Amino acid sequence: MSHGLPPQSAEIYTARRRRLAAATQAPALLFSGSSTPRNYPANVHPFRPDSHFLYLTGAWVEGAALLVDGERSVLFMPAEDPADLIWHGPTPGWAEFQAATGVDEIRDIETLAELVQTRGAAQLSSLPAVSAATRFSQGRLLDRDWAEPGSTPKLGERDAALADAIIGLRMVHDAGALEMLRGAAEATVAAHLAGMAATRPGLRESDVRAAMEAPFIARDMTTAYGAIVTVHGEILHSTSYGHALEAGDLLLADVGAENHGWAGDVTRTWPVSGKFSPTQRAMYELVLASQQAAIDMLAPGVRYRDVHLAAGRVILQGLVDEGVLKGEVDGLLERGAQGLFFVHGLGHLLGLDVHDMEDLGDRAGYAPGRTRAPEFGLCFLRLDRDLQPGMAVTIEPGFYQVPALLAPGSELTAPFDADGSLDREALAKFADVRGIRIEDDVVITETGAEVLTAALIKAPGDVEAAVGQR
To answer: Is 420 exposed, middle or buried (0-12, 13-18, 19+ CB in 10 A)?
Structure first.
């Protein structure tokens, strides 16, 4: 990925800033953030700008700030460091950044404190930056109650109004955003096909991970999040890659590209040997049916929570058909029985972050007046809004046998064991299914939905045929 100038035309960012100004009717100040050292100061983690800043400028620049004040916008940047020419070579200058971002002016970041003092902090809205150090620094600058280390950032009235305005903008993707999401989706599809082709017994998870991340590097991209490539699909966020791949294993790969900040997020599950066992195929087809039922529901005005419940109902019906669960499906759904095996929510918003705008918590994911349900089958749902054209979401149902949840006598399973709703003997037949997830990236259209990652195979026969072909 190239750092520095925006990847798209200045008109895209200018239009976004103008929409923000119209929505807020007040000056807004946003910060890019700063890198953090891994150990000593010169050895830093890769820098990634704050997403709100990136959305409005496209600029990959550290230690900067953007002031949006009506029709006028000013980018504050650090002065050029002569040492950078020695260590990092020539970088774009202020004039290039001004032309590429479309801002009206660029000033030295050292003048920002004077401007805030002159304007008065009460007149400026500001969102917390990603870096804790930067957040506390800007908090002190703007006299916010989250200024001191150890405090929990809170959005006061000024910052909340800006947050709501940005949520409104970023929730519905413009043409420029959709272009970047499609680029991330294309690279993500290539990664999963490469992973399937590279898989064979005797390798390690890390071998497949390497094959999957190579297409990102070749496109000058990176990963949108830590890759999950594991034969232990029951570990939802596995980040170890040392297990050997053995015949009979299923390999779950949750891997997505980041295209100048814009994220892809896809999961596929495939058999290491290139052939599903009968029990693996049965559960795979059940998860696939659940996903397809959810995708078929997507349209403007549909409540995402209802899509989640519909996907869970398909899972429950399949488990009843297999004898794993007993009872009437709607009753099981009301009791949250799907949460025994479909632990997480159906998906989330997708955009400049893989879980888009979750730095703002449920303020972004939940519509005003809606809150998270306490029930286990719903408490992990990240999104409860009515769908709109231009929204991008993931659809990712799954089936998992998580030992900590399914252990006999656990608080979660006890009610279902007690009344015989859970048939453990029938469940034991699926011992070779640790975890299956199938996930795609979808954008809502005026009449339905477009699957951005539709080019990636998921029919079981097609998946089997793609394994081990490298």
So the answer is: exposed
CB distance 8 to 176 below 8 Å: yes
Does the model's pTM come out above 0.90? yes
Tens digit of each residue's pLDDT, the chain (470 residues):
335 899 999 999 999 999 999 999 889 999 998 888 888 888 988 899 999 999 999 999 999 999 999 999 999 999 988 887 888 888 899 999 999 999 999 999 999 999 988 887 777 788 766 666 666 677 778 877 654 555 445 677 788 899 999 999 999 999 999 999 999 999 999 999 999 999 999 999 999 999 999 999 999 999 999 999 999 999 999 999 999 999 999 999 999 999 999 999 999 999 999 999 999 999 999 999 999 999 999 999 999 999 999 999 999 999 999 999 999 999 999 999 999 999 999 999 999 999 999 988 899 999 999 999 998 889 999 999 999 999 999 999 999 999 999 999 899 999 999 999 999 999 999 999 999 999 999 999 999 999 999 999 999 999 999 999 87
Cα distance between residue 451 and residue 151, in whole Å: 41
Q: What domains can be seen in the chain, in order of their start residue?
A: 10-170 (3.40.350.10), 175-466 (3.90.230.10)
Strand-by-strand arrangement of the 222-223 sheet: 222-223, 257-259, 262-263
Please report, for the chain, how many H helices and E strands are present, in that order: 17, 16
Give per-residue burial for 285-306: e unless 16+ CB within 10 Å, then b.
Answer: ebbbbbbbbbbebbebebbbbe
CA 440 to each of CA 232, 274, 282, 458, 459: distance values in angstroms, whole numbers, following the listed order: 21, 22, 20, 10, 13
Q: What is the distance between the terminal CA atoms of the chain, rounded to a whole angstrom?
A: 26
Distance (Å, whole) CA 302 – CA 276: 35
Q: Is the separation of the CB atoms in 456 and 400 below 8 Å?
A: no
Contacts of 123 (CB under 8 A, 6+ apart): 26, 27
Q: Which helix (H) or strand (E) holds 83?
A: helix 82-87
Burial of 85 (0-12, 13-18, 19+ CB in 10 A): exposed
140's tokens: 């002190």
